[in-house]
Amino acid sequence: MAKDKGKKAEKEYTNRGYSASDITILEGLEPVRKRPGMYIGTTGPDGLHHLVWEIFDNSRDEAMGGFANDVEVVLLPGNRIRVADNGRGIPVDTHKQTKVSALETIMTTLHAGGKFGGEGYKVSGGLHGVGSSVVNALSVFMKVEVHRDGGKFIQEYSRGKKKGSVKKIGASKLNGTIVVFEPDVEIFPDIKFEYSRIVNHLRQQAYLVNGMKVSVIDARTYEGPIKDDGVFFFRELNIDTPSMSFYFEGGLLSLVKFYNQTQKLIHKNIFYIEKKSNDYESVEIALQYVDDISSRIVPFANNIYNSEGGTHVTGFKTALTRTLNNYMRKSGLVKDSDENFTGDDVLEGLTAVISIKIKEVQFEGQTKAKLGTVEARGIVESAFGEGFEAFLEENPDDAKAIAGKVILAFRARKAAKAAKDSVLRKGALEGMTLPGKLADCQSRSAEESELFIVEGDSAGGTAKMGRDRRTQAILPLRGKILNIERARLDKMLASEQIKNLVVALGTAIGDTFEIAKLRYHKIIIATDADVDGAHIRTLLLTLLYRFFRPLIDGGHVYIAQPPLYKIKKGKEIFYSFSEEEKNKIVGDYAEIEGDEGAEDEVSEQDELEEEKEEDEGVKNPKIKSKNLKISIQRYKGLGEMNAEELWETTMDPSKRVLKQVAVEDAQEADKTFDILMGTDVPARKSFIQSNAKMANLDI
Predict the structure, then answer these.
(1) Are residues 347 and 408 in the same domain?
(2) Which secondary structure element, helix H or strand E, spans residue 569, and what is its range?
(3) Positions of the region Disordered (predicted)?
(4) Is residue 530 annotated as part of the catalytic site, yes or no?
């Protein structure tokens, strides 16, 4: 009997507080506002810009279908974006199922659009029918203006809900759609559109659609009146604002040339193929090898950039490796008994753009970062394999140059493997042979452990004394590490500094890299606030980007922000991390020497202390007020701080400021590293001259 009571009580406990009344049904676009990350990935900068891509993609799909040839994106004051195209215009007639305008249906209903079937689009980037409605749901304001059927129609919305019915406000001889939206501050905490990011993305899209003109206008800083009523394209207003336009006839050939413009070419002719079939719309691929040790593969499916690759990339790599191996043996460049070239060998120095257009496209997730269509692998593998084999036969000089590049990569890989095996032998990463200069932490939990990479033994000694020994490890570097931008793995591992860092991280490197073995989940670069410190930081970031990219993608890499100044006001001590912060602290209390009305009340004891500080290398300008002497110490290096100061300002998790390193645009980051750390001096000089005004110099 007691046993039965126990079961009854357990059942009552299990069911308690969970009934039909606990089931929440979200209507309309409420699910988008409740869980925006499901639809745009994040509410940070990536998700914010994804709103622009979603609206632009609708215009781009009109151009892909041959219905438009002009698309314009404008950044307006007040965080608004305006996208216009001269396509067919969104239908405004009544939808049979919803009994309201098709425009209203598309903008306020999830999974409603012209891309599920019928004759609306043969090929499109959108397939879920959520793009426009998601942007609408996440915008505090949206207005759609449609020109079609001889009329001009508008409808406005706020947070996914219409503010009125579709209205015809006049006649029009034009065709097209204008969308204006303003992201909701309740969803996006920091609304800041980046003009350069939008330009880079839309330039890329212009390469992919032949005959499509794309314009970008930044009118955010324009101070005059902006009234765009009555104009279709914003540029008709002739306002003097930054703008760029793109139109490319060369397609993917032009895109490969653009990516390789600062590179030393291995062969002259760019491989290019476009193949169409009844089973799919088209496969388009262009590639060229350059004198580099990294590769750049840029894949698209229905003109959507797939940052994580997918089945089309797998098919491409398979065909590339097989075709080059067959060519090498057929041409007698290698013997049948020789080892096959691997994917790493044939990818080294490759720049390739892959674009596939298929009717039933499948992506992994709404952000479409990875193509999941199974058939795409075979389609690309077959089309590219046949075309590349013919290219090698018809262009013997290019083929010979490519073969030489691959053979060099093969030999370098073998040499690098031997060097790596000698350094990262079994047991070397298990705590047995950690670098002697590493002051490891006591904790063996990677989740709570931190590695500070500091500049020089002086800073290293101070950091060791000031740290939390339980969770913080210190690795001092001796001077500047090797620039690995053009260095192979064997040369890298011959560097004692880099070898120490690899062993300390615990992940190994190259094809044996395992992020699961990372010994510290925070890698913190702490260098001095001078030119040498900035150079060392850049060298470290180059190393991490090229060989430890998963650490950056996983959010494990940080840059410490030590204070620039220590300010003493009587017995009070303040630390400032910028010139503006210093000026604010000083400005409230002090008058700089030379100002009218300032009186010198420095005592003999003050002068002795001042002389002592000057002897110790402290830059201490004489700053006075009527009743209080203020001294300012400018920190040039971490070694100038004592252990207590370093802990309080830079290492204490409760007070410090860390900047997390992230890659927003991998292609742009790759290009920038090539320019700044590569061997092309003219390109680097041009880059520095073009961007010098944006540099924050501390001289």
Answers:
(1) yes
(2) strand 565-569
(3) 595-620
(4) yes
